[in-house]
Amino acid sequence: MARLAHELRQLRREAGGPTYAALARRAGYSVATLSRAAGGEQLPSLPVVRAYATACGADPEEWERRWHAVSEKLAEAKQADGAPYRGLARFEPGDDEIFFGRDALSTELLALTRNRRVVAVIGPSGSGKSSLLRAGLIPRLTRAFQSEEPDAEARPAAVRVLTPGSHPLGRHRSAFIPSVGDGDTWVIVDQFEELFTLCFDPVERNEFIAAILSARGPDSRLRIVLGVRADFSSRCLEHPGLAVVIRSASLTVTRMNADELRDAIVKPARLHGLVVERELTSRLIADVAESTVALPLLSHALLETWNRRRSRTLTLDSYEHAGGLQGAIAQSAETLYARLDTVQADIARRIMLRLITPGVDGAPDTRRSTARGELEALSGGREADKVLESLTRSRLITLDGATVTLTHEALINAWPRLNGWIGQNREKLGYQRWLTEAATAWDAVGREPGVRISPVRLSQYVALFSRTDRDELTPLESDFLAAGMATHRRTVRNRRATHAMSYLLVAMTLLTAAMMWRQRRLLQEPRK
Predict the structure, then answer these.
(1) 3-state secondary structure string across 317-335
(2) Predicted model pTM
(3) 24, 127, 168, 291: which could join 253 in a potential S-S bond, CB 3.0 to 4.6 Å?
């Protein structure tokens, strides 16, 4: 739908950019109707699309084919939305009816947040932290707000959810201002590890931590809940205030036991009038017991099994055809990748690598939230839009407004092709993460033409990116490097000119001294 709206806007630009009033006269529809058609908020009707195309001088039959393609994709998405399982996607607050297996942990977390103003939820990647926060905690807070509970503090004045990103305080400063009204404001900071993987400014990082810890003050009306990946808890312990939170107010997300797993497998299907074979349930519980990243793999395998169900029954045979617990993600990803042509496959590779922050000093690779515009800039927009839609439909990535991210970090290791790309490009990826951040900052201050880039960084660029690799950079990144190289060349020329002038001055000084000495000798010689 967003792509069709983008193409309609592009069509209008290619037609010379007529006003909507002019288009309305040609199309026979109102300005508001045509404007909404290109707005992307909802799918316009087929007659409106045909009229819009005709008014812009395009072939209406071609645009009818495009409309049908989008309509079919929306129908597929709607069918997928009716699935009882979330796949790699996390559970959201509206999914609490199908969020099974975490009742005890959700209740324990709610009690902890009422007794402590800053709480940390700690668990390994794939343990279900995000889902616990969103589909376990938030609905319970909402029900407390809607209840007639006499304790006003038990009712949240507001519940806010955020992820730190690269500029946590710049983006989220207002989130720490309590909402007007009775009760506390809950701020849930999911994927807290982004503070260490995406934020490169230690000052902003410490200020963000200070904003979190301010909730412990006696007059605070904030309650903070942090979702922390276990392998980054040591980074939290380096900060005295966070160390206190980890020691005294943390909840560890443990593995589900067999009964909890059975609930997570069977009860969502039962809500949809489906049946799960006993053999499949037993096999899933056994397979999960052997996996270290269980829940996203389980959820994706169940979704793929549901897609292959026989009538109303999810069978062991369908599960095995989907690839099983360990192979379902790779099979889904490879199926999508095989449908892409050569150009689209290369764009998909670039997009997926842009969504990765490589680990350093033994740290694991992590996902990176990325602006959609950054990804579209890799190929002029249109082809990138097609690939983004394909990756989204396959639930490998998530589009949230203008932000793109991997649906789950489990994809990094579960898809061998992606893992191989990362291994082959690890050093280049580290450089790209620096380059993107530096170029964005340069753009924000007006693209200073005299920007200086260290010779070491410029040498890295030459060493890491061959001429054929340089189309992997966005126009902004290329412009930033070009400006830095131009500054470097001017600096080198000026330095050489200064050295040459210095040599010339020395030579002239020596020559002048020699001439003066010669003159004195001539004056001192007796005349004959």
Answers:
(1) HHHHHCCHHHHHHHHHHHH
(2) 0.71
(3) 127
